[in-house]
C-alpha cells in the first residue's frame, strides 16, 4: 500500500495496484514425488483398474521430470495452506516410499481407511484353504450358471461360492453374525435359505453348507434345515449352517484348527 500511495495516488493512476507474485511451477518436487510413486505402484500392482488410474496420473504428469524420490523428500515439500488437501496425497506417498503401514498409535495422526469387502476375503480364504489342504475334492470357485430361461435366453444368474462336485456339495460363505432370534431359524437369514434352495434345485444336489465365521454372541455351532418337496424326488435337501473359528490367537495351531473343522463338515456324510 505504501508504494500505491507514493506512485499511484500522486500520478492519478488510482486504478492500478502493486502486487507481488510467483509463477506456477508445474515441474516441482511435489509432482515429482507423486509421479515416481505412481510409477513404482504401477509395477507392483496386479489390479488392472488400479493400473489404469496410476497410468492416468503419469500421463497427466508427463512433463514433470522423472527422478528417483525417497520418503525424506516428502518432508522437504512446503504446501500452501490453501491446498491442504494435497497433504493427504503427500502423506500417502511417504507411506508407500517408506514401505510403512498405517500408524494407529498416534491419536493426533490422520490416516487413510482402507475398507476391504470382508465377505470376499472370507470366501477367498475358505476356498484357498480347501484347495490347498483338500486337493482330492477338486473344489471349484465362483461356479456360475443361470436359474431360468425366457424366450430361449438365460436369465437370473446364479453363482456358487464353492462347488464340490465329488461330494455333490454346495458351500456358500456368509460373513455375518447369526443372531439368535428365538424363532427357530438359528440366525439364518430367510433370503439366504431361499437362495441355497434355488442353488440346490438347479444343481440337483441335496447337500448345502452355509459357513459363517465364529464370532462372540454367535448362535450354536451347527444348525440343520430339511426341505422336502416333490422336486427333490423323495430325497430332502439338507441345508446346514456351521460356524468356523478363524480368529484363534495361537497362530501356530490356527491351520490345524481350521483343517480339523473343515474336515469334519466336508466329510461328514461320506
Write a brief caption for the model.
The chain is α/β, with parallel strands linked by helices. About 35% of the residues lie in helices and about 20% in strands.
Notes on the structure:
This protein is α/β, with parallel strands linked by helices. It has 2 domains: 2-97, no CATH class; 118-266. It is built from 7 helices and 6 strands; from the N terminus they run H-H-H-H-H-E-E-E-H-E-E-E-H. The protein has helices spanning 2-9, 29-44, 48-60, 86-97, 118-133, 190-203, 251-266, and strands spanning 140-150, 153-164, 169-173, 207-213, 222-227, 237-244. Strands 1-2-3-4-6-5 form a 6-stranded mixed sheet, with helices on both faces. Helix 2 (29-44) packs across helix 4 (86-97). The chain is elongated, with a radius of gyration of 30 Å. It starts with a helix and ends with a helix.
Secondary structure blueprint with pairings:
Blueprint: H1 2-9, H2 29-44, H3 48-60, H4 86-97, H5 118-133, E1 140-150, E2 153-164, E3 169-173, H6 190-203, E4 207-213, E5 222-227, E6 237-244, H7 251-266
Parallel strand pairs: 3-4, 4-6
Antiparallel strand pairs: 1-2, 2-3, 5-6
Protein name: Restriction endonuclease
InterPro entries: McrC
Organism: Adhaeribacter rhizoryzae
Number of distinct helices? 7
Termini separation: 92 Å
> Structural class per helix/strand content?
alpha/beta
Radius of gyration: 30 Å
Shape: elongated
Number of domains: 2
Main sheet characteristics = 6 strands, mixed
Write the element-wise H/E pattern from the N-terminal end onward: HHHHHEEEHEEEH
| Strand percentage | 15-25%
Mean pLDDT: 82
Number of strands: 6
Low-confidence regions: none
